[in-house]
Amino acid sequence: MSVKSSILHYKHIIVSKLNKYRVIILLRIYKEYIGFLDYKKGKIAMKIGNPMQEYRLHACEKEPETIAWIEEYMGSGSIFYDIGANVGAYSLVCNVWTKGKAKIYAFEPSHLTFAALSENIALNNASSSIIPLNIAVSDSNKLLRIRLSNEAAGAASHEMIMNEYLKVENQDRIVIGFRLDDLFNIFNLESPNFIKLDVDGCEWQVLLGSKEVLQKEGLKSILVEIDSSSENSQKIIHLLESYGFELKRTYSHGEGTISNCIFKRMN
Asked: Where are the alpha helices (DSSP H) in the chain?
């Protein structure tokens, strides 16, 4: 074998091995950053960049009542408002369940979590049916201050600071706050048939800014996370009852005071 042939031979071996290792590296990166939600009726890809996002892969096991609610009520043509969408697990379940034929508005104020939500929507080719909105739904239109429990994408249990937004501390972030009624009217949003409301203790404020939307006849059911130890827990129930909704089922989260409460409009 000539010197030139030997060089070409070994160059081919080296390039082949480099390509092999490049594929292995890419597979390792893929496995590290992409996981799949524990939804048994369809494959839903989710970005994993930290332990909180990995925890979100178990959203169906964590809240089977939310999955059952989506599957019982939602179908082709449904309009779903996911208020407090986090990284988008339940929005994506709705999208898969309805075969992409529902319209979903996913509201998430936390900046990094919103970025992960947007990536998950893109990963699942769901941009035509899920509209992500980086907005804190509240009882007023103004800049709000959120005190983060954890800055990582996928984190929850943040605290909404209702006083002067300019007094920012290290774990605080400034977000846009909007009344749902004004969002609906100003931006001509489609009227919801279903609302999931899980906003870390600010559910009462969201409902106060949503009285016009709550009166829409097309709104059939609302799932609200309620903390029974909160002074607003009974106010939430009474407000929804005053708009024609009945509390149908309550699902406790472990031994704590937090429950998912499903309301249905009574005809």
From this structure: 3-33, 51-55, 59-62, 64-73, 89-97, 111-123, 180-186, 203-208, 211-214, 233-242
Cβ partners under 8 Å of residue 123, min gap 6:
34, 45, 46, 47
Residues 21-68 pLDDT 10s: 333 343 444 444 899 999 999 999 999 988 888 989 999 999 999 999
- CB-count burial class (<10 Å; 0-12, 13-18, 19+) for 55: middle
- On whether the CB atoms of residues 104 and 129 are closer than 8 A, the answer is yes
Percentage of the chain surpassing pLDDT 90? 68
The string of DSSP codes covering 81-150 is EEET-TTSHHHHHHHHHTTT-SEEEEE---HHHHHHHHHHHHHTT-TTTEEEE--EEESSSEEEEEE-S-
Shortest CA distance to 141 belongs to which of 216, 205, 190? 205
Average of pLDDT values for 98-127? 95
pLDDT in tens, 149-199: 556 565 554 455 555 555 556 667 788 999 999 999 999 999 999 999 999
